[in-house]
């Protein structure tokens, strides 16, 4: 994987093969950030990266100037890798080893952008629990954006706060808004 834009543009990051991850493709990531570029000043926002995996999305935000990033994953190897990589690049990414649902139930922070990339084999109920907890617990700021990455075989259009989706190959980003 590589960083698409910003201070660390073009830098390649190689994650250990033993991590249980499926990083967002460069093509999909570039398309996503083209959308976000038109809506946000990256140095003014707080970002939450759920099911952070390799930290791919967190690094992209950090490279573009975001310095308030929290990455959450339940797998220690992922958290360790993100922490080490962020430290080597001098990126300000806070890492939290936690079950995402437990984190969403207990956090007192709120964020401008929340990105979640859960396993593609999640059930609709498991996907639906993510926006449910985020909106119930007021974790997304007013005019904030929740982005759920999922397979093209998963349809999230019936979930509350759903706004729209964008497809890139087999990847889909569904957007949920707090308006």
TrEMBL record:
- This chain's protein is named RsmD family RNA methyltransferase
> Which GO-annotated molecular functions does the record name?
methyltransferase activity
Q: Which Gene3D superfamilies match?
A: Vaccinia Virus protein VP39 (3.40.50.150)
What keywords tag this UniProt record? Methyltransferase, Transferase
SUPFAM superfamilies cross-referenced by the UniProt entry: S-adenosyl-L-methionine-dependent methyltransferases
This protein's species is: Microcosmobacter mediterraneus
Please indicate which superkingdom the organism of origin belongs to: Bacteria
Biological process (GO) annotations?
A: methylation
Under CDD domains, the record lists: AdoMet_MTases
User: InterPro entries of this UniProt entry?
Assistant: DNA_methylase_N6_adenine_CS, RNA_MeTrfase_RsmD, SAM-dependent_MTases_sf
């Amino acid at each position: 994987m590589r960083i698409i834009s910003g201070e660390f543009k073009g830098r390649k990051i190689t994650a250990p093969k033993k991590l249980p991850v499926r990083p967002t493709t460069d093509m999909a990531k570039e398309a996503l950030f083209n959308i976000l570029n038109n809506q946000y000043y990256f140095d003014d926002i707080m970002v939450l990266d759920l099911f952070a995996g390799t930290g791919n999305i967190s690094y992209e935000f950090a490279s573009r100037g975001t310095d308030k990033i929290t990455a959450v994953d339940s797998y220690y190897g992922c958290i360790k890798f993100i922490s080490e990589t962020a430290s080597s690049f001098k990126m300000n990414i806070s890492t939290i080893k936690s079950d995402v649902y437990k984190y969403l139930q207990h956090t007192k922070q709120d964020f401008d952008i929340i990105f979640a990339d859960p396993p593609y084999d999640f059930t609709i109920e498991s996907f639906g629990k993510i926006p449910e907890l985020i909106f119930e617990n007021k974790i997304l700021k007013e005019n904030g954006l929740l982005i759920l990455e999922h397979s093209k075989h998963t349809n999230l259009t019936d979930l509350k706060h759903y706004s729209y989706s964008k497809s890139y190959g087999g990847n889909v980003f569904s957007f949920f808004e707090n308006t």
